[in-house]
Amino acid sequence: MFCIAGADSFFGAYIQKELLDSGEKILALNHSKAVFSDNENIINLPFEVSDKNDLHRAETVLRKEKDINIIYLIASHNPDFVRKFPKEAERINCECYGNFLDAISMCDINKLFFASSDTVYGESIDGEVFTEKSPANPINIYGVQKAMAEAITLDRGFSVARFAYMFAPSLTYKPHFFDKLTTDLKNGKEIKMFTDYARSSLTYKTAANCLYRLVKSDSDERIFNICADEPSTKYQLGLYAAEYANADKNLVKKSTMQELGIFNERRASDIILSNSLMKETLGITEKINFNTL
Predict the structure, then answer these.
(1) Which residues pair with 161 in a beta bridge?
(2) DSSP string of 261-286, one letter each residue
(3) DSSP, residue by residue, the chain
(4) d(CA 4, CA 71)
(5) N or C terminus: which one in the chain shows less Cβ crowding within 10 Å?
(6) Number of other residues whose CB lies within 10 A of the CB of residue 202
(7) Can you give the pLDDT at residue 102?
(8) Cα–Cα dist 261/61, whole Å
(9) d(C-alpha 125, C-alpha 101), whole Å
(10) Least confident stretch, 28-42, 51-65, 250-264
(11) Which residues contact 156 (CB under 8 A, 6 or more apart)?
């Protein structure tokens, strides 16, 4: 069985679809609204990680299962929110996560992957490419808290998956940023996208497939970068959104983070990751692009 904590998130929905397509059984722990209805392969539970009763309910179900694989996605992840409410965010990102691990400690866990972020690396100065052995050097509080949660994960003998920015149409009840872009473009509205913000981005579908295959692999590695071969800017993602929406690419306008001024917390301009370990582990020889579906 797979247990997905944060199953109704954007990424959680794609992971569930990957697992269901592969015939896996799922315990979906949902914060708000289930993405897929209960059936012979999926059990949905409402779940608030800070609620002791919810922890006990999930643990009760898991105690009946064998060889459980857990994918943990729950996080207070908006860097601006984390900066404004650092203690509240740390409680969710670290304290409650530790409580979750305590609650499932007597269950038959095969593997647990904690979904981390490329923000733990900090800024790619002069085009530096970060591997899993690169030291953590986060430049904002969110990255610091992710690094803290990683340390908790590794101390318990579990695994970490570090993701770059991910995007795709939403499978949940709420629209993703990508949906908002494509809607605007279809309606002939211009969008402004950063040219000074490069990440090794992936679609949710590709990231979910790679993560699933890593969970099923026999690798002893504890940290993986899950990302594209090369970085892409938000402007490039905007051009892809126009292509996806069959809209005029001239509607996508270049801008910078400073010009738009939409962030309060500091963010790295470039975070470039190496996916060599992931590709070697999975036997992937072809190039993985940011828009690989």
Answers:
(1) 115, 224
(2) ---SS---SEEEE--HHHHHHHT--S
(3) -EEEETTTSHHHHHHHHHHHHTT--EEEEESS--SS--BTTEEEEE--TT-HHHHHHHHHHHTT-SSEEEEE------HHHHHHSHHHHHIIIIIHHHHHHHHTTTS-EEEEEEEEEGGGT---GGG-EE-TTSPP--SSHHHHHHHHHHHHHHHTT-EEEEE--EE----SSS--HHHHHHHHHHTT--EEEESS-EE--EEHHHHHHHHHHHHHS-----EEEE--SS-EEHHHHHHHHHHHTT--GGGEEEE-HHHH---SS---SEEEE--HHHHHHHT--S---TT--
(4) 5
(5) C
(6) 27
(7) 97
(8) 46
(9) 35
(10) 250-264
(11) 101, 112
Residue type for 256, please? Answer: T
Residue 191 tokens read as 């969008």
Residues with Cβ within 8 Å of residue 262, at least 6 apart in sequence? none
**Edge-to-edge order in the sheet of strand 2-5:** 42-46, 26-30, 2-5, 68-72, 109-117, 159-163, 223-226
Residues comprising the chain, all counted: 293
pLDDT of 264 > 80? The answer is: no
Look at residues 270, 265, 262 and name the one whose alpha carbon lies nearest to residue 233. 270
The pLDDT assigned to 31 comes to: 94
Amino acid letter for position 139? I
Reading the block at residue 26, the tokens are 């799922």
Beta strands 232-233 and 198-199: pairing type? antiparallel
Q: Which residues contact 187 (CB under 8 A, 6 or more apart)?
A: none
pLDDT of 119 reads: 96
Phi, psi of 185 (to 5 degrees): -65, -40
The answer for residues whose C-beta is within 8 angstroms of residue 206's C-beta and 6 or more apart is 288, 292, 293
Mean pLDDT computed over every residue of the chain: 95
